[in-house]
Amino acid sequence: MLTCIALSSGCVAQSDNRPSTEWAVYENQMLALRMSYPSHWDTTAHDPRLAFIAAEINPDSLDRFNENINLSIGKIQCTSLDEVILLNLNAARQRYKDSVSVESSERTNAHGMRVMTISMVLPVSGMNISNQANFFTDGEWLYCLTFGGETEKDQAYRPIWNAIIDSIELN
């Protein structure tokens, strides 16, 4: 089971629904995955458990948290995406008990792909960090794209998170 609840520590043409920023593309040719992310984000961090990491570079010294995305990929071991979400929801609720609200939602991205999301707000070092794990599959592989950011900045980053999800393509 792939669990993505943990908090993560070239430009392309812009579609009409993406926020105004320059975009770069992450592509995994072996898995036929493509997605866009803000081109000014740092992608030099490496974690062997993750396929991709991109983090905003702090715009000023007062910013205590780098908003970020990370991508985990693993063989799907459940019968459906619904089962993946149920297992991860139960694991998160058991881990955090009543101290953290854990919610799920579902959407279809701009390429017709089903994306199921688990969201929560976690207290970290005196801040509230929004963590959103977005799960999707091609039937063989399970992908989890996790967004992390300061809760007070949710409204500002929501268009970026949505644009990243809408950019995901599995060919």
Strand order of the largest sheet: 3-4-8-7-6-5
User: Please, how many helices?
Assistant: 2
Q: On the 0-100 scale, what is the average pLDDT?
A: 84
| Coarse structural class | alpha+beta
Q: Alpha-carbon distance between the termini?
A: 23 Å
Overall body shape: globular
What Rg, in angstroms, do the CA atoms define?
15 Å
The number of strands is: 9
The major pleated sheet works out as: 6 strands, antiparallel
Sheet-strand content, in percent, reads 35-45%
Low-confidence parts: 1-18
Helix content: 10-25%
Question: Would you list the SSEs in sequence order as H and E?
Answer: EEEEHEEEEHE
Throw out a few tags for this protein.
171 residues, alpha+beta, 3-stranded antiparallel β-sheet, 18% helix
Task: Describe, in plain words, how this protein is organized in 3D.
Helix content is 18%, strand content 38%. The radius of gyration is 15 Å and the shape is globular. The longest helix has 16 residues, at 81-96. The strands form two sheets. A six-stranded antiparallel beta sheet has the order 3-4-8-7-6-5, sandwiched between helices. It has helices at 81-96, 154-167, and strands spanning 23-28, 33-38, 52-55, 68-75, 102-108, 114-124, 127-137, 141-150, 169-170. It contains two helices and nine strands. With 171 residues, it is of the alpha+beta class.
